[in-house]
Specification:
The complex is a heterodimer of chains A (280) and B (1062). Chain A has eight helices and ten strands. Chain A has 280 residues and is an alpha+beta fold. Chain A has a single domain, classed as 2-Layer Sandwich (Alpha-Beta Plaits). In chain A, the strands form four sheets. In chain A, strands 8-1-10-9 form a four-stranded mixed beta sheet. Chain A is globular. Chain B has 1062 residues and is an alpha/beta fold. Helices cover 25% and strands 18% of the residues of chain B. In chain B, the strands form 13 sheets. In chain B, strands 4, 5, 6, 7, 8, 20, 21 and 22 form an eight-stranded mixed beta sheet that branches. In chain B, helix 10 packs parallel to helix 17. The longest helix of chain B has 19 residues. The two termini of chain B are 51 Å apart. At the A-B interface, helix 1, strand 3, helix 4, helix 5 and strand 8 of A face helix 1, strand 3, helix 2, helix 9 and helix 30 of B.
């Protein structure tokens, strides 16, 4: 029997180094944002800095499955209240996963580790999961390769888990702010960490998603040093059934629509392949 | 801290084994289980090759996974004692550093006046380079110079040097290359040999050397976990050394207090328990006030530990000459200043001695004791002065002082971590000295959880200093022969350089063995072991003055090896223009750097100021091998030598650096073959046998030199039998041993398992702390230096050491290093049993059977001159130096001077700047004090996402996207004054240049009120240039060529600028 695994991101330990973002790119062979223009032929910037503290990744996307947020806080004139919060964010792998629920083709599955996983061969790119995700995690790939037009997100490094390795982001994290392990052990640990921090005077520290109150429990959960809203997280995210006019509509059309969508996706991929061939 | 459920790569393997194959799965709560889908793993069945991260000096271990001859993955090594599988953003991108279509894999040639690169055959390029080297050498070689002796006599002195060739780089290359390259160039007579260490930590070496005896970090990274207080100052550690910071976070988790003192609130400040601002360049005031606070505190005066440590282990009780006067009496100067030469005569700073031994007052009451002089000197460094000069509140300063005091003592230790924020000042050496004094006074040196951690920024910037591509040192910190000293003969050189009352008494063995390693059979007692062949230096041949010489047309040829002065040099525009005065230049790197392409892509060319057709520099670009493509070793920031293995052949024309230098040497040997000229004989005799074809079986490149063989020469062996030496105590001064660098001896030594010699840098057995069997740390595998001080004068471990050894130590020890009076220590030369020796979890940094209560021998030579309670064995008196009677040219005690460019007058002394500061700018390229044209303070610094001049990061999309362009951090207050909004373009100007950056407006920067005046800081990361995929203006176009008088390091952390909307 496989144990349910979880990820605990303790933002109080995060130094914002973005190693998690890079390790994710490397392990999953994800292109950088810059790749919109082929950098070998066209050196130079394709997009500017955001000016949003040290965050130039901007958001989770089809190419960025891990994203470090930076929040600068200071109100007092002498800056004695200055805080620089950092949070490494990714897919929450919700227990009640809207994406999984709305996916009309069954492309999104629950793995033996309890994580959610998009099977790209089955994904038609219908975008229902994109709309359904309350955290804005899932995006449709626009890169010019075989993945174009499919929904993309963190896999919890499914391949690594199956071979006894922890996810790339957790392994590389310099300060062990991202921890991976059996979820029940992690939850116990998270509560201990919270108690320690509160004892040390971090009165705003909270756990987010460590119990079932949020979408039945997040398999990737967080210790935050401020309210969820501070980090751009919904206070009380809703499952798809309550928020989205789900693919029930879509499902009505069933087979026909499915077939059409598959065809479209297939065509898109073919076009991408042709384009790639033409370039090389 | 709570025990965690974190799983390492291996633990998780055990935990999940067999799990996923099962058909049914129970998932969390109310979710339906789903069948497992088998995933293929890209590293399944891969060959794992152990390697080391090529970026900063932390020295993380990596695993390179090879499948079908291709690198498929690089990630952190979970077994590595420093990084435990983790890597920072840069380390995590190593795969893309190596596997990247932008890498140059073809040798390129740019002819004089050419407008583009031309491909060139690698062999032809090598032949042409060898020919250029020979021509320049033959044209410019100088055998004798006439100089004036101090008493005015004209004298003719041998120099044997080639002043027109300059070699730059080494801190990113392997140790073996550094050694061989320095040997080749010195063999040819080249003296201008420099690397990144000059701009990085060159001030560390004299500062820590003068204070403690050796110029390296006194502790090791994993030991930071045991610190009770961590003071990070002059470093943005979380950002620039994230994996070393991992151990600071461990200390914090154990209840330690983390303090960050910095002009900016950074990623490090965000994790600190106490953040203290300070105005850039005022660290000596801050640290001086800490010294003053500590020695006048009730804790320091009532806890007997402090006096016991200070009286026994430092020079506090020594009496200084009665005529000594300091800055209090002399308007900010020390006694002996000659305004004409801007130098000190340090005679009056000396100890009072009788029979060569200094007089002492162990009660510390005599007004001429070091302690009383120090106390008077720092009396004016008060919390009020800190408030006034540094611009930080008294209350914050006092919190820091109290935390340091509370974290020090018999039960506690505190560590200080620093980096470029301290080294890069015109007062860099004195600044680091202040920290050394503070740590000695607090009893924190030589003890676990204590010490001074110098954080270095390149993979082997430590190694490239040790063995040694720096103009002023031969491998092993032997001073380069100089016409400015009495170095005429080997006997003179030895007499001048040997300190007879310290471990340096062995100096003759070190230099003679080195000469034997270089000149082999030709080195005999009759010919001074070839000493007369060595080139002499005639002055300061460091980075900046050599560029000045280049700008004047005095340098003909240059090697640029993994360094990028077009971006990283101070007043970079000046340095780029100087490159155009070269006749030839060889650049070796992975990518087409700004330096390689200065003649076509620099701002001077793109603006039309210069035309490529008019630049007559001939340029060779030879592609370099990357870390995965060669064997070799790096020495990390805590002196740990670690081996990395070749995983794959380099692509195309790319070759290892070692290949380049060894084959260049072979070609030159051929060109000089048969020469009977006296000046060529040394070079012809240079031993040069580094290729072992057997090692290249199975690789595409068949003539790759053997890095192992080089490391063996560095380690040393008996000349006749070629038996590898176990340690530097086996060295001889009669030519019977050869040894490239004495401090590394033992790195390739016979061991129980390998009686003919084991590469100990490749040993990989870690524990949770000291890890003596992981790699090899110089000297003699010691991890904490001066660790005799981890025991009390009688040899018993201090209480903290007892506790740590019990909780974390291996081998049932009672302390870190301590005297075990009952231990069997073998037999003496007469065969009598010896009882009692130093033992512990580390290698004792002390004569292992010397009794702690042994008295000093009156006429003792070497360490016999010291008593058994003298932990600083490299110092002439065995003590840590609070007061430096010699060794620091700008004063025996650190005193505050303002940065060379400053918006305010010196409020501590009438003397404004370091009176000895080196200045290579002219008056019109420097801003005067309180300049209204340049009112703001500017500091340059690094980011976590980029590495130094960006050559190893700006070509990598994964990293380039994280910090795509240059920005200037400014406070909202300054932004409002200048009507600048976030991300607006701003123009930043200094008398040297003017660049454009985006504004990053943040409350993490703050205005300082100094002397009633509001002072703004501007922060500028300096990673960008005009090549690569993330391009921006060059921040160093703004910085100034002014530097520290001891080390010629520049002042990058403080100068002044103006900011306007662009």
């Amino acid at each position: 029997m496989t144990e349910t695994m979880g990820m605990f991101t303790d933002t109080s330990l995060c130094i914002g180094c973005k190693a998690c973002e890079v390790a994710c790119h490397q392990w999953n062979s994800l292109p950088a944002n810059l790749a919109e223009q082929p950098y070998a032929n066209n050196p130079g910037l394709t997009y500017p800095m955001t000016g949003n503290s040290y965050d130039n990744t901007g958001a989770l996307s089809a190419e960025n499955w891990r994203h470090v947020r930076f929040i600068e806080q200071s109100e007092l004139p002498d800056r004695s209240d200055l805080r620089w919060l950092m949070m490494s964010d990714g897919c929450k792998h919700c227990a009640n996963a809207s994406c999984e629920q709305v996916c009309p083709t069954g492309a999104i599955v629950r793995t033996e580790f309890g994580s959610t996983y998009i099977q790209e061969q089955v994904c038609t790119g219908c975008r229902d999961c994109v709309a359904a995700c309350p955290f804005g995690v899932i995006h449709i790939s626009e890169t010019a390769d075989h993945r174009q037009g499919t929904a993309r997100k963190c896999t919890f490094c499914y391949d690594r888990l199956q071979h006894g390795l922890q996810p790339a982001c957790a392994q590389t994290c310099p300060t062990s702010a991202i921890r991976f392990g059996p979820i029940n052990e992690l939850r116990t640990y998270a509560h201990q960490r919270l108690a320690e921090l509160q004892h040390a005077g971090e009165l705003r520290a909270i756990l987010y998603g460590a119990d079932e109150s949020i979408l039945g429990g997040l398999h990737s959960f967080y210790l935050l040093l401020d309210s969820p809203a501070t980090y751009g997280l919904p206070d009380n995210p809703k499952a798809a059934a309550q928020t989205v006019i789900p693919s029930s509509l879509f499902s009505i059309g069933g087979a026909i629509v499915m077939g059409l969508a598959s065809l479209l996706a297939f065509r898109r991929r073919r076009m991408a392949q042709n384009a790639a061939l033409a370039e090389s | 801290m709570a025990t965690s459920s974190t799983v390492s790569r291996r633990d998780f393997l055990k935990l999940a084994a067999g799990g996923f194959a099962a058909g049914s799965v129970i998932a969390l709560v109310d979710v339906e289980p789903t069948r497992a889908r088998a995933q293929t793993l890209k590293i399944a069945g891969a060959r794992d090759v152990p390697s080391i991260c090529p970026y900063c000096g932390v020295g993380c271990g990596t695993v390179i996974s090879m499948r079908a001859g291709q690198i498929v993955n690089i990630e952190g090594n979970p077994d590595h004692p420093i990084n435990r599988g983790a890597l920072c953003a840069k380390g995590s991108a190593t795969f893309q550093l190596i596997v990247n279509p932008l890498r140059i894999t073809q040798a390129l040639y740019r002819r004089p006046g050419g407008t583009g690169w031309e491909p060139i055959d690698l062999d032809q390029a090598m032949d042409m380079i060898a020919e250029r080297v020979k021509r320049t050498r033959d044209e410019t070689f100088v055998e004798f110079v006439t100089t004036r002796t101090p008493d005015g006599k004209i004298t003719r002195k041998r120099v044997n040097h080639t002043p027109a060739i300059f070699s730059l780089g080494g801190a990113t290359m392997d140790n073996e290359w550094n050694y061989v390259h320095a040997k080749l160039l010195r063999g040819l007579g080249v003296v201008a040999i420099e690397n990144q260490a000059r701009l990085c930590h060159s001030s560390t070496v004299p500062a820590l050397g003068v204070s403690f005896g050796r110029g390296g970090a006194t502790t090791f990274e994993q030991d930071l976990q045991h610190a009770d207080t961590v003071l990070i100052m002059g470093s943005n550690m979380a950002e620039c050394h994230p994996i070393a910071f991992r151990w600071v976070m461990q200390a914090k988790a154990r209840g330690g207090t983390i303090i960050h003192v910095d002009p900016r609130f950074t990623r490090t400040s965000a994790q600190a328990n106490i953040y203290s601002p300070l105005r850039a360049g005022t660290d000596i005031v801050y640290l001086g006030a800490l010294i003053n606070y500590v020695i006048n505190s009730s804790r320091w005066n009532n806890e007997p530990f402090f006096k016991e440590y200070v009286v026994n282990y430092t020079n506090a009780p020594m009496l200084i000459n009665a005529e000594y006067q300091g800055p209090d009496e002399l308007d900010g100067l020390f006694q002996g200043f000659d305004p004409e030469t801007r130098r000190y005569n340090s005679d009056s700073w000396a100890y009072q001695t009788v029979n060569n031994r200094s007089l002492q007052d162990r009660t510390l009451q005599d007004p001429q004791t070091v302690f009383q002089i120090l106390k008077r000197h720092y009396a004016r460094y008060t919390p009020e002065l800190v408030e006034q000069v540094c611009g930080v509140s008294r209350a914050t300063f006092l919190r820091v002082a109290e935390a340091l005091l509370a974290g020090s003592g018999p039960e506690h230790t505190s560590v200080i971590c620093y980096a470029m924020g301290w080294t890069q000042h015109t007062t860099g050496v004195q600044l680091i000295r202040t920290a050394a004094i503070l740590q000695l006074l607090l009893g924190n040196i030589g003890r676990p959880g204590g010490g001074i951690m110098a954080l270095r920024g390149h993979a082997t910037v430590q190694g490239s200093s040790d063995i040694a591509t720096l103009y002023n040192i031969h491998p092993g910190y032997l001073n380069t022969p100089s016409v400015l000293k009495n170095h005429e003969t080997l006997r003179d050189y030895i007499a001048t350089e040997t300190t007879p009352t310290s471990f340096w008494v062995n100096f003759p063995k070190f230099i003679v063995s080195q000469l034997k390693a270089w000149y082999g059979d030709a080195a005999t007692a009759e010919n001074e072991f070839g000493y007369q062949w060595l080139p002499r230096i005639t002055g300061d041949h460091s980075h900046i003055p050599t560029f000045v010489a280049m700008s004047q047309g005095n340098i003909d040829g240059m090697f640029v090896m993994g360094q990028n002065p077009a971006v990283a040099g101070q007043n970079a525009r000046f340095q780029r223009k100087a490159l155009g005065q070269l006749k030839w230049m060889v650049v070796r790197d992975l990518y087409e750097t700004e330096t390689a392409s200065f003649w076509k892509d620099s701002p001077e060319v793109t603006s039309g100021e210069l035309r490529p057709q008019d630049i007559q520099t001939e340029v060779f670009f030879l592609p370099a091998a990357a870390i995965a493509e060669m064997d070799g070793s790096f020495t990390n920031t805590h002196r740990l030598i670690q081996w990395h293995e070749k995983a794959v052949d380099p692509p195309g024309d790319a070759r290892s650096d070692l290949w380049f230098t060894v084959h260049l040497g072979l070609r030159l040997k051929q060109l000089y073959q048969g020469s009977t000229a006296a000046r060529d004989q040394g070079f012809l005799n240079l031993t040069w046998d580094y290729i072992d074809p057997a090692e290249n079986t199975g690789w595409r490149i068949k003539d790759e030199p053997s890095a192992q063989r080089v490391l063996q020469e560095i380690n040393g062996y008996t000349w006749s039998e070629r038996q590898l030496l176990t340690g530097f105590t086996a060295l001889k001064d009669d030519g019977s041993t050869a040894c490239g660098a004495w401090i590394y001896t033992g790195v390739y030594a016979p061991t129980e398992t390998h009686p003919t010699g084991e590469n100990r840098s490749a040993r990989r057995k870690a524990d949770n702390w000291v890890s003596l069997e992981w790699g090899f740390a110089w000297p003699a595998n010691r991890r904490i230096l001066y660790n005799r001080a981890s025991a009390d004068p009688a040899g018993n471990p201090w209480p903290k050491e007892q506790r740590l050894a019990q909780l974390f130590g291996t081998g049932h020890h009672r302390g870190y290093v301590y005297w075990d009076a009952t231990a069997d220590a073998g037999t003496d030369s007469q065969g009598n049993p010896i009882q009692g020796k130093w033992v512990g979890v580390d290698v004792p940094d002390f004569p292992v059977t010397k009794n702690p209560l042994a008295p000093a021998k009156t006429d003792g030579v070497g360490l016999d001159f010291h008593d058994g309670a003298s932990p600083f064995i490299m110092k002439a008196d065995g003590k840590g130096w609070l007061f430096a009677p010699r060794g620091a040219v700008d004063g025996p005690l650190p005193a505050h001077y303002e940065p060379y460019e400053s918006p305010v007058p010196n409020l501590v002394y009438p003397q404004q700047q370091n009176p000895l500061a080196k200045v290579w700018e002219t008056a019109d390229t420097l801003a005067p004090m309180s300049s209204s044209a340049y009112p703001h303070i500017l500091s340059t610094y690094r980011l976590a996402e980029h590495h130094l001049s960006g050559v190893m990061t700006r070509w990598l999309p994964w990293l380039a996207q994280l910090q795509p362009e240059l920005f200037a951090e400014i406070s909202p207050e300054l932004a409002q004054e200048l009507n600048i909004r976030n991300t607006d373009k701003v123009r930043i100007s200094t008398p040297r240049g003017s660049i454009v950056a985006k504004a990053l407006v943040t409350r993490r920067l703050r205005p300082y009120v100094i002397n009633g005046q509001q002072i703004h800081h501007v922060g500028l990361p300096w990673h960008w240039g005009y090549k690569g995929i993330a391009v921006s203006d060059v921040a160093n176009d703004l910085s100034a060529m002014v530097g520290d008088p001891n080390a010629s390091i520049h002042e990058a952390k403080v100068f002044v600028c103006n900011v306007t909307r662009a």
